Amino acid sequence: MSDFRDERIGLTHAARLLGVSVSELKAAIHQGTPLRGADPPQPVVRAGENRGNLLFLAGDVMDCAEALGNSGRNP
């Protein structure tokens, strides 16, 4: 059985795991800006005619979600 971190997930699922909108995630990726203070996950696949279908490794999205969760906390 494969590790979930190695699974590929789509843009909608990635945004849902991160707790952000699809448009907010896409904007951060395309503009190269932080996503609510954290580096956004980078797609491993850009497919389709306009290359708008993005796929991410679940582990990269999970790492970003952890960074987002920790960004508002004081050490």
Could you walk me through the main structural features you see in this protein, from its secondary elements to its overall organization?
There is one protein chain. With about 80 residues, the chain is α+β, with helices and mostly antiparallel strands. It has helices at about 10-20, 20-30, 60-70, and strands at about 10, 45, 55. It has a single domain (about 5-70), classed as Arc Repressor Mutant, subunit A (Orthogonal Bundle). It has three helices and three strands; from the N terminus they run βααββα. Strands 1-3-2 form a three-stranded antiparallel sheet. Strand 2 (about 45) and strand 3 (about 55) form a beta hairpin. The chain starts with 7 loop residues before the first strand and ends in a 5-residue tail after the last helix. The mean pLDDT is about 90.
Compressed to H and E, one letter per element, the order equals: EHHEEH
Rg (C-alpha, Å): 12 Å
Task: Estimate the mean pLDDT confidence.
Answer: 88
**Number of contiguous helices:** 3
- Major sheet summary line: 3 strands, antiparallel
Low-confidence stretches: none
Distance between the termini: 37 Å
The helicity comes to 40-55%
CATH topology: Arc Repressor Mutant, subunit A
**What is the total tally of β strands?**
3
Beta-strand portion reads: 5-15%
The CATH top-level class label: Mainly Alpha
Shape: globular
CATH architecture: Orthogonal Bundle
Number of domains: 1
Strand order of the largest sheet: 1-3-2
**Which class best fits the helix and strand makeup?**
alpha+beta
